[in-house]
Amino acid sequence: MTAPPPDSRPLKGFWYEVTDEQILQWLDVPVAERLRWLDEAREFLWQAMTPQAKEAMRRFREGSL
What are the extents of the domains in the chain? Predict the structure, then answer.
């Protein structure tokens, strides 16, 4: 994958590249390990969130945001 020209990138967010080899390596990781990684990331982010962010997340899940 190649990055788009700087003037066509979004003004917010971030950009990174993943090679075909990296995708193939990720496919070799057992599903249980991928899910464990995802749950660890979710827990880390939850602990780092402010109470206001957690409330916004709750409202988003309920569809009221």
Answer: 30-65
Residue 9 neighbours by CB under 8 Å, 6+ apart: 3, 15
- Rounded to two decimals, what is the model's pTM? 0.59
What torsion, rounded to 10 degrees, do the Cα atoms 41, 45, 47, 49 define?
-170
Left (φ > 0), alpha (ψ -120 to 50) or beta: where does 57 sit? alpha
CA 12/CA 49 separation, integer angstroms: 20
- Are residues 54 and 46 in contact, defined by beta-carbon separation less than 8 angstroms? yes
Place of tokens 């409202």: 59
pLDDT tens per residue, range 5-57: 666 666 677 778 899 999 999 999 999 999 999 999 999 999 999 999 999 99
